[in-house]
Amino acid sequence: MTADSVPTPFPLRMLRAAMLRADTYEEVEADKSSIWQALAVVLMAAAAAVTANLVRAATDPNAATVLPLAVQLTVVFLEPLVIWLGGSAFAYMVGYSFFRGPETESDYLEILRTTGFAFTPAILAGLAFLPPVALSLSILVVSRLWMWVACVVAVRQALDFTTGRAVGTFGVAALMLWVVLWGLSVMPIP
């Protein structure tokens, strides 16, 4: 973004990010002030997931669960934030260290900004309470897959990669995040 250009309005940035427009991810990467917008997108995705879980719990009398609702909602709210911060950190480490190309020039905040906007499709998960269950599940699967594709585009643009390198970076970063979170989940509590 040049000094004399006007930034795209936030809702339009979100729409274009959901449309997987590379120029929008480049704009977000260059706009240092967009970190707050990226955080807002992730918080909207978290709020949408919480809303869907609340509605589902209120409307489904058979929603037997092992964990109390407050614990479930806390986990559901924190999941996008943890994935955003941790996944972006691993994407930066893997992409900048192992998949780095000759044009790769980036920092962690650039990856945070672009991947934050990649969470825009996850806001659809707020509709994952709609009956029947197959529709709810379809909404969750589509929104998650769409978000993953958007994350690959975000990583590609932030690290100035080819699509193949971006897919590799995203895959390795996702695996690393999963291993860490799984490790924490089975770690004995002192």
Overall description:
By secondary structure, the chain is mainly α. It has one domain. It has seven helices and no strands. The protein starts with 9 loop residues before the first helix and ends with a helix. The model has no long low-confidence stretch (mean pLDDT 92).
Task: Chart the SSEs and their pairings.
Elements: H1 10-18, H2 22-30, H3 35-59, H4 69-97, H5 108-117, H6 133-159, H7 163-186
Helix pairs in contact: 2-5, 2-6, 3-4, 3-5, 4-5, 4-7, 5-6, 6-7
Give the distance, in angstroms, between the N- and C-terminal Cα atoms: 50 Å
How many β-strand runs?
0
**Percent of residues in helical segments?**
over 70%
Name the overall outline. globular
Order of helices and strands: HHHHHHH
Tell me the Rg in angstroms: 17 Å
Proportion of residues in β-strands: under 5%
**How many separate domains make up the residues?**
1
Kindly state the mean pLDDT as a whole number? 92
Number of helices: 7
Specify the structural class: mainly alpha
Main β sheet profile:
none
Brief characterization of the structure:
This protein has 190 residues and is mainly α. It has helices at residues 10-18, 22-30, 35-59, 69-97, 108-117, 133-159, 163-186.
Please describe the structure with a list of short key phrases separated by commas or semicolons.
mainly alpha; 70% helix; 190 residues; globular
